[in-house]
User: Fold this.
Amino acid sequence: MKKFEQLRGIVAPLDRANIDTDAIIPKQFLKSIKRSGFGQNLFDEWRYLDYGEPGKDAASRQLNPDFILNQSRYQGAKILVTRDNFGCGSSREHAPWALQDYGFAVIIAPSFADIFYNNCFKIGLLPIVLESPVVDRLIRDALTVDGYQLEINLEAQTVMALSGETYWFEVDHFRKHCLLNGLDEIGLTLQHADRIRKFEINRRNEQPWLFL
Amino acid sequence: MKTLYDKLWNGHVVHAESDDPNGMVILYIDRHLVHEVTSPQAFENLKLSGRRPWRTDSILAVADHNVPTTDRSSGISDPISRLQVETLSQNCEEFAITEFKMDDERQGIVHVIGPEQGATLPGMTVVCGDSHTSTHGAFACLAFGIGTSEVEHVLATQCLVARKSKTMLVKVEGNLGQGVTAKDIALAIIGEIGTAGGTGHAIEFAGNAIRSLSMEGRMTLCNMAIEAGARAGMIGVDDVTINYIKGRPFAPRKDLWDRAVTYWRTLKSDEDAVFDHIVELKAENIKPQVTWGTSPEMVTTIDGYVPDPADISDPIKRHNIEHALEYMGLKPGTPIQDIALDKIFIGSCTNSRIEDLRAAAEIVKGKRIAPNIKLAMVVPGSGLVKSMAETEGLDRIFQAAGFEWREPGCSMCLAMNDDKLLPGERCASTSNRNFEGRQGPGGRTHLVSPSMAAAAAISGHFVDVRSFAH
Assistant:
């Protein structure tokens, strides 16, 4: 996994609650057996006026001028600010893949769906929970101030506006450690291989029917 | 003093990284269910890292999302879908993993076949790269959906790095009215607590209305726990659980069976267990439910009306409702029973088991679908459900009524195969999600129980199944 460095970037607002993973990356793109290339179909049904299909050249498609991410001021945005329960629905990791492939490195919301939140950390995309009134302000500023940026410091667990206002966020210690160092979680678990084997032997003795 | 969740969690902790009870632990996984959509990248990375599956006998694989529900003799026509299904088979062959292929009668929706085979047993941790893995919690399992990186993690280590959830008890006491099903309980709960109500929690369902449900009904309920935001839903073991499992292919036999049952009987919350949250519903108050919006929490009763956003004071909620009504093409104040339909879908990991098909068949028996219904389809959850239904003559009842009788798979629940809604089409669906575009771009989904979907097919619009003439 890629290390999460300190980051400063343009903020794109998506003022809507309960954005589900079907909206983030529609199911027809889930037929791919690859991990990359989902960015061009991020929010496909909102972003384009025509129906998207795998293999369709994005350059030939009709952009929806009313969709906020299509506005020129949000091009190159690295930070998405959105509403409650972002990423609800299916467990598809294709959703964080698509967000990351599009260029987002940080998603800020008052709350996230559990599986989505968990999936983000596995690929080095940072989901940040901030209180609703703070998110209100960030969305308002991103809508009104041209080129509005935020600076994210994972080490210090802060989100800083260029005006100097700083908001602290919580993140699990282990997840932070993995992100900051770009660690391979599987490798970390395999350091406990002996413990896993021992656990498994006990389990086999106590509940042999689980090993039929 | 322990909850069922505590017992399941504690029994699977291999190693705790710290003394913090809310810290990350290494959690052992007993059963890994695998399907074609969320596994190819996991297998690919596993191989690129020079690793192998830790315990192949814990894995059961099946292709369900992409498979056609029409004639399968010539395979899958869409080359991208075909490649994904073939990739699953190649991975399973390479590592000698048990897979039920498309021509195997045991093939079906992963959350139907696990329990059907007895591959889901009480006390297990069950994971799958699919959010509806919560279904298996009906068997007093700790079962939850994971992403592809975690699929790879479980393949490589038989474990996950996880953090304990909070607990929520949802208690439903009393007697369910005639025509009211597990699906209606699930939607009523989501209507009450919202789609984020269970976020960060594992839900245990309890109370005599839950005890009165069959295993099929309990699976429907736990299946929808994720739509309430909870990764896991679960129900303690009782005779209903044990009777369902007995004799299934992967279930223990003879001495081992007795030993297992003795242990399984302990898998329920202690009388004095403490939960972080408790939600109580009275079964008598639950009526047949119909969703009207683009989130499962946008739900009302069959005698209800489409809400008016003008009545909502919270601006974000109001905005969401306006957006949903526009997408759904519905006017505020419309009686639910006046909503006319184009298509009917009976199927999905929520409602495609034999009991669901029986309930729907009972409604349509001797009747015809309404002329405005362009397509009504029944997609059994597995080949075995299909053949049992055929033995009972249900296929003939459905077909005589004008329904199509299909091959098993996820089908129009998420429309990854050819079964989909066209833009603007309105569907009464027994599936679990009414998100925008879920059943096809521009499609409009109303979630209901199987008997409500069947009654809607006959009437051409929603109708109260409690007063529907048999």
Observations:
- The mean pLDDT of chain A is 96.
